[in-house]
């Protein structure tokens, strides 16, 4: 995603990382919002009185206490919620990621142009009743492109978008630095926010804590960090995704057992839940629930500290990848719901090509590479996030490394603890965590820049950005971004991914499915997505 880099300042780093770079189940910002504290206080207030006006209750397996600022957040909960609260000029289908007109009246007919003009939907209003204007659009994009303001969204736009101009009250023009058709789908990442609300002093801090006012089909009615967030259909909405549920109550339940219990049995308190453990699929299906998975970029990755010898040597990094019995990991830990990585990208990605270096299980090659690097008697502590499926995978890594003579200690910790150490530049050897940049989109340029870049937060963690190979990689990535020919661009991306695979500084071990469960007797139109959260914009009561 970037030149595109997660260059977010430390105070907001966790809200950026959660469920993207380090998919975890911990809090980032925990202050509650007095401005959003009206509404039901109990997570059991589901309003299940029957009829079409009953409350839809959803269980989200991630925290709702990360940043809610759409220009800043990577929180699974708030990103999913913001898709219901806010609109971009264009938004995208949650599965195909094809753009459709949201606040704008149409998708530009010439995506290869360096000027995209948009007319705003007539009668579009924010949840406080004020009209959406071109000033609001310019306000959001100026924040994103401001060189003095560090936001996550900057990385999605700054490399290719020059400026956004107001034509008149209902028309805007986006001026591009060069033709960039992939930018159309990225416009959903620039949620249009009311200038009259968020230009006030302190308003961005309120947005981080949970204040959300958009023009989308649902308005936020209450927000209780670490508990639940509630929504109500916005009567003033006149866009393409009409709200089907009068009220919604989204519960945050990070622990797997109570999350599954909430949607189980005849007295289930919720109708849909994401992040379903593989071990519970059969139980839920036998109880009448529909369970479906989405396969995409969700992955367990290893990140090496190249400033800590011997991990500065790519042969050591490659050896440790070759040593892992990934087929066993998929069978035992993922219950068959995954695949060993054969590229940085998952196999379903449109830009996928099998990498030149594929880390098929080969302990003999691993031993030979360690010998070539002159490494013997190596001891490693794996600093890992304590996400349940990551913890399930760790014993396979330990057994595999122990088997080649690398003494391995597992150290799973809360995600906040792991990345606080990273922020503080504490020493470490290897981090095991989870990532899913698909929540931002499918285009490979975005995905790779999210992980790699000269000022990228991940590269700061790895201490690798100054390496000559890294510097050349970043140049190759920038050239690929600017390449106008789609076929040539795809090949250029695939070629530099070969370098990423060979260097294995930050690289996936397995890609796995994310499971969603719902009651098919009550809900229809549900589609399991391959990234955290849920999307109910095309769902309805059965």
Automatic annotation (TrEMBL):
Keywords: Signal, Transport. Residues 98-448 form the Solute-binding protein family domain. InterPro entries: Peptide/Ni-bd (IPR030678), SBP_5 (IPR039424), SBP_5_dom (IPR000914), TAT_signal (IPR006311), TAT_signal_bac_arc (IPR019546). SUPFAM superfamilies: Periplasmic binding protein-like II. Pfam families: SBP_bac_5, TAT_signal. The keyword Signal applies. GO terms for cellular component: ATP-binding cassette (ABC) transporter complex; periplasmic space. One of its GO terms (molecular function) is peptide transmembrane transporter activity. Residues 34-46 have a biased composition (Low complexity). Residues 34-54 are annotated as: Disordered. The keyword Transport applies. It comes from the Bacteria. One of its GO terms (biological process) is peptide transport. Belongs to the bacterial solute-binding protein 5 family. This is ABC transporter substrate-binding protein. It comes from Streptomyces qaidamensis. The lineage of its organism: Bacteria, Bacillati, Actinomycetota, Actinomycetes, Kitasatosporales.
């Amino acid at each position: 995603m970037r030149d595109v880099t997660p260059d977010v300042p430390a105070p907001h780093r966790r809200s950026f990382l959660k469920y993207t770079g380090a998919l975890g189940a911990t809090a980032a910002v925990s202050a509650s919002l007095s401005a959003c504290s009206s509404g039901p206080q109990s997570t059991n207030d589901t309003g299940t009185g029957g009829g079409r006006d009953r409350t839809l209750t959803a269980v989200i397996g991630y925290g709702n206490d990360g940043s809610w600022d759409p220009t800043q957040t990577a929180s699974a909960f708030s990103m999913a919620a913001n898709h219901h609260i806010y609109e971009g000029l264009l938004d995208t289908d949650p599965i195909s990621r094809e753009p459709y007109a949201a606040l704008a009246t149409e998708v530009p007919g010439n995506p290869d142009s360096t000027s995209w003009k948009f007319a705003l939907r007539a009668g579009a209003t924010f949840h406080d009743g004020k009209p959406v204007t071109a000033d609001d659009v310019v306000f959001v994009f100026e924040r994103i492109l401001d060189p003095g303001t560090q936001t996550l969204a900057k990385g999605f736009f700054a490399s290719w978008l020059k400026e956004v101009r107001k034509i008149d009250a209902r028309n805007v023009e986006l001026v591009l630095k060069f033709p960039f058709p992939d930018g159309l789908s990225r416009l959903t990442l620039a949620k249009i926010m009311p200038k009259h609300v968020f230009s006030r002093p302190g308003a961005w801090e309120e947005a981080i804590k949970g204040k959300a006012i958009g023009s989308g089909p649902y308005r936020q009615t209450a927000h209780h960090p670490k508990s639940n967030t509630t929504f109500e259909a916005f009567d003033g909405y006149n866009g393409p995704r009409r709200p089907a549920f009068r009220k919604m109550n989204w519960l945050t339940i990070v622990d797997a057992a109570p999350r599954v219990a909430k949607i189980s049995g005849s007295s289930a308190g919720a109708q849909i839940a994401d992040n379903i453990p593989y071990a519970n699929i059969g139980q839920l299906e036998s109880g009448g629930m529909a369970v479906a998975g989405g396969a995409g970029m969700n992955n367990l990755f290893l990140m090496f500290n190249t400033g800590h010898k011997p991990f500065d040597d790519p042969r050591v990094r490659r050896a440790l990848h070759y040593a892992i019995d990934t087929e066993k990991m998929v069978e035992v830990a993922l219950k068959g719901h995954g695949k060993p990585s054969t590229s940085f990208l998952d196999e379903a990605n449109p830009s996928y090509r099998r990498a030149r270096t594929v880390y098929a299980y080969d302990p003999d090659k691993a031993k030979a590479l360690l010998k070539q690097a002159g490494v013997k008697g190596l001891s490693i502590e794996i600093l890992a996030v304590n996400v349940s499926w990551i913890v399930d995978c760790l014993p396979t890594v330990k057994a595999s490394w122990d088997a080649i003579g690398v003494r391995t200690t597992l150290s799973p910790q809360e995600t906040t603890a792991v990345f606080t150490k990273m922020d503080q530049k504490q020493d470490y050897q290897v981090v095991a965590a989870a990532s899913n940049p698909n929540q931002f989109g499918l285009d490979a340029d975005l995905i790779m820049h999210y992980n790699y870049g000269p000022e990228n937060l991940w590269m700061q963690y790895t201490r690798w950005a100054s390496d000559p190979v890294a510097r050349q990689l970043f140049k190759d990535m920038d050239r690929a971004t600017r390449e106008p020919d789609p076929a040539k661009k795809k090949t250029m991306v695939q070629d530099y991914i070969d370098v990423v695979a060979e260097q294995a500084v930050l690289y996936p071990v397995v890609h796995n499915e994310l499971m969603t469960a719902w009651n098919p007797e009550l809900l229809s139109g549900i589609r399991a997505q391959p990234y955290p959260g849920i999307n109910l914009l095309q769902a309805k009561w059965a």
